[in-house]
Amino acid sequence: MSLAIQISNLVFTYNESLVLDHLSFSVEKGSMLGIVGPNGSGKTTLLKILSAVLTGSGEVKLNGRYIRSYGRRELSKLFAVVPQESQISFPYSVAEIVLMGRASHHHPLALEAEKDLEVARKSMELTEILSLADRYLHELSGGEKQRVMIARALAQEPEMLLLDEPSAFLDLKHQVQVFELVRRLNREQGLTVVAALHDLNLAALFFSRLVMLRDGRVYRDGTPAAVLTEEVIEEIYGIRVQVQRDPSGEKPQIFLCPSC
Amino acid sequence: MKVLDRKRMIWVNGVLLALLVLSVVGCALLGPVRLNLAQALQNMLSPNPDAEILFRARLPRVLLGVAIGGGMAACGVVLQALLGNPLACPQMLGVSGGASLGGILGLIFFPHWLLPIAGGLLGEISWVPLAGFLGALCSMMLVYRFSLFHGRLHPYHLLLSGVIFNSIIAAVIMFLNSIVDFYQAQGLLFWLMGSLSTRAYLTVAFIWAYIIFGFLWLWAKGLSLNLITLGEEAAMHLGVEIGSLQRQIFIASSLMIGAMVSVSGMIGFVGLMIPHVMRLIVGSDHRLLLPASFLAGGIFLGWADTLARMLLAPAELPVGIITAFFGGPFFLFLLYREGRKKLAL
């Protein structure tokens, strides 16, 4: 198996405090990785370095090449980012937003070609928002907006998908929908998925591998069952929980029990 | 699914361009003095009053107005995108303040100096707009320096340093205004209110050169301008070299604004209103929005200045009064009718 992402000895400091402390791990092509950890453990910083918004010291390689050696347009064909929430101050239609995912694929002075429209249409079909194409983004609900962001990411035809807490502002149904969609894309199109996640139960249900960060270091790395144990949660989050299996008997689920 | 295609680009811009040409002709023919166009054109070579008024007084003024209107609207569009703020306008950038101060210093210290062009063969131009443009360049460099962090122009810093820079300069201008004598103060006030009156084709050519150059530069960035309205990080993820884009937009629009303010003073409202009106009409895609706003801004200011010349003829109103007085209610009407569904507020 070849590696999509290799990180070794990644260090990032902000205002002289160490946010990422000699972090190392790698991600196989076509796999799904969930990054979990408490607030301030470095999840978001790590995603920002992976998406080349920030630069740390140490090695970060994408597809075996140093991330620094890529140009922005090249990077945007390699991976797409789905943000937590999107604030757009000007009125764009859903179709226009999704087509912006094609920006790196056509000449900057040209309009979108037939092929770009085709890819955009397909991404909207996959995310089931084709019927919303001519609506304005700000008219949509949170769940619909998030699917628009995923459609835009797919329109980039990326090899990797980076998600920053994609379900943070969604209700229960839409949380599950977003992760089912992401898992389907991973299975059907072979997309490599890396997501920063807050909800440990959702992470356990949808991701086969979790990396638990603590103070900018990898604290645990493995299957949900190996990472999400009662001892680890108590150590990391400082609260007592019970971990039991979900009805299928495979995935761990965490139960809060303040009194136990 | 409705998207921007070539047909729509050509159709919208073609109609607006035709309207702009018609407006230039119409505005040049209209004025307190009735003109006989046939007369003016027939005897172009032998001087006659009609040709004199048309070609020496009205046409350069209309051409200047069209350029300034278009340039202000185009700058408004890109600054709203760059600063991620629908309330941004060309007056906010700090450059306009620098241009005003430069022009005012020119008016105070060498109001009558003339600079001969090509040894006087091409005529002479006043030093006042040159001083204004010099002021604009200085303020542009200062604001740039104060807003640049790690190779990026932070929108909030840019907005704040521009606004603060302008208020410092406003204080300096008020100070100067209070120490010069009465007649000079009157002159300064008129200059500040903004006017499109010119007889010099050289000035008009200077402005058009800057406007065309800046406009084409910005238009070439149309696609990136779309992406930058999604936020800095989203734009980076979609392939935009954000630092370079921000610097280019700032420099191109500053040069345009500096040139415009140094010649015609602060003509407000066009740069704020036209981008919003055009966004409601043609949509937010900058590849179409930018040229459409440019053309519409030209049409709007051309007619506004014609009204300013005619309403109280033979006296002239400052054109800023017209732009705000007639543009404002129209904008409110449009906002009321279209805004609720289209504005992301």
As residue ranges, the low-confidence spans of chain B are: none
Shape of chain A: globular
Helicity level of chain A, as a percent range? Answer: 25-40%
Distance between the termini of chain B: 24 Å
Integer average pLDDT of chain B: 86
Q: Give the total of beta strands of chain B.
A: 4
- Let me know the average pLDDT of chain A: 90
Biggest β-sheet description of chain B: 2 strands, antiparallel
Number of helices of chain A: 9
Q: Number of helix segments of chain B?
A: 14
Which structural category fits the helices and strands of chain A?
Answer: alpha/beta
Radius of gyration of chain A: 19 Å
What is the makeup of the main sheet of chain A? 6 strands, mixed
Percentage of residues in strands of chain B: under 5%
Strand order of the largest sheet of chain B: 1-2
Assembly context of the chains: heterodimer
Q: If you compute it from the alpha carbons, what radius of gyration of chain B comes out, rounded to the nearest whole angstrom?
A: 20 Å
General description of the model:
The complex is a heterodimer of chains A (260) and B (345). By secondary structure, chain A is α/β, with parallel strands linked by helices. Helices cover 33% and strands 28% of the residues of chain A. In chain A, the strands form 3 sheets. In chain A, strands 6-7-8-3-9-10 form a 6-stranded mixed β-sheet, with helices on both faces. Chain A has a 4-stranded antiparallel β-sheet with strand order 2-1-4-5, with helices on one face. In chain A, strands 11-12 form a two-stranded antiparallel ribbon. Chain A starts with a strand and ends with a strand. Chain B is mostly helical and 345 residues long. In chain B, 74% of the residues lie in helices and 3% in strands. Chain B has 14 helices and 4 strands. In chain B, the strands form 2 sheets. Chain B has a two-stranded antiparallel ribbon with strand order 1-2. A two-stranded antiparallel ribbon of chain B has the order 3-4. In chain B, helix 4 runs antiparallel to helix 7, helix 5 (127-147) packs antiparallel against helix 6 and helix 9 crosses helix 13 (286-310). The model of chain B has no long low-confidence stretch (mean pLDDT 86). The A-B interface holds A 48, 51-53, 71-73, 75-77, 80-81, 83, 86-93, 95-97, 99-101, 103-104, 108-109, 111-112, 117, 120-121, 124, 130, 133-134, 136-139, 156 and B 1-6, 9, 80-81, 84-86, 220, 223-224, 226-227, 229-231, 233-234, 236-241, 279, 283-285, 287, 341-344.
